[in-house]
Amino acid sequence: MLDQEDLKWIAATSTELNSILQQVSRYADLARRHRGEHNYIDLLGERVELASKTAQSLFDRVTSKILAGAAKKSAAARKSEAGFTVVPPGATDDESPRSIRTSRKGEQKRGSGGDSKQATAANENGVPAGVRIKNAHGPREYILLIEDEPDVADLASEMLAEEGYRVVIAHDGFEALKIYERMGKQIGLVILDYFLPVIDGDAVFEELRSINPKVNVVLSSGFAEQTKIASMLGQGLRGFIPKPYSRDKLLEQVRSTLDAARQATR
User: Fold this and answer.
1) Torsions phi, psi of 154, nearest 5?
2) 72 pLDDT band (50/70/90 cuts)?
């Protein structure tokens, strides 16, 4: 987990962040009292940007340490676990669908499939009929992308497809769970948006784990409660990808998670 050097760095960075926030408060007060005078708005914007970057660096360091520690603790246990494993694309899953918990949110919302391919029947790779696949014949793993915003889904799936991944797109929690029930053994990784219609991301994560306790999931969000993320990490979440998407961060997290899962099963 966190060592002495990490704790020192966190303490120093937290002090720096507190100082920046005090400056933000001061500049905001000056801007209110002297509207149109000086450049307080510009200074305020600079401090807010710096505070955001500092907070992100804190989060990244702590999260990376938590993930590293969790991976070491669970590696041995995962090696000995039997049951649900990712199988080659040629295999199929004949298990009957399980019941899905009702949503905590509103009515189901379906999104468009963009330029992803629509399967009309179970194909030679064992993909169930009707499942949307981008880059269906790519050389790399299947990735289930759960994202309710079509533009964001298109962007992320394009980045992944260009790297050879086969991307299965779901636009809400119910759709994602149905897909995972039908072809979960072929899916190497789930990228899960936190804020979704129908079922929140943390509830979808719980349902996925009830189907497969060893499911590889990384959370993706621009805003998420730190306590929620910490709880999900403790339950086996493999990582976090901040929004807006950076191609390098997205591909790095995807590859490192898939490689770690492969190492743990050896």
Assistant:
1) -65, -45
2) low
Decide the pairing of beta strands 166-170 and 132-134.
antiparallel
Cis peptide before 244 (omega within 30 of 0): yes
The pLDDT tens digits for 123-144 are 555 577 777 799 999 999 999 9
Nearest in space to 109 (alpha carbons), one of 199, 23, 192: 199
- 171-229 pLDDT, tens per residue? 999 999 999 999 999 999 999 998 888 788 999 999 999 999 999 999 998 776 677 88
Helix axes 201-211, 226-234, angle to 10 degrees: 10
Structure tokens at 238: 């493999």
The model's pLDDT over 30-43, given as tens digits with 9 standing for 90+, comes to 777 777 666 667 77
| Number of neighbouring beta carbons within 10 Å of residue 155 | 17
11-20: list long-range contacts, CB under 8 Å, 24+ apart. 13/54, 13/57, 13/58, 14/58, 16/54, 17/51, 17/54, 17/55, 17/58, 20/47, 20/50, 20/51, 20/54
Strands of the sheet containing 142-146, edge to edge, are 117-118, 132-134, 166-170, 142-146, 187-193, 217-221, 239-242
The DSSP call for residue 114 is T
Q: How far apart are CA 151 and CA 162, in angstroms?
A: 17
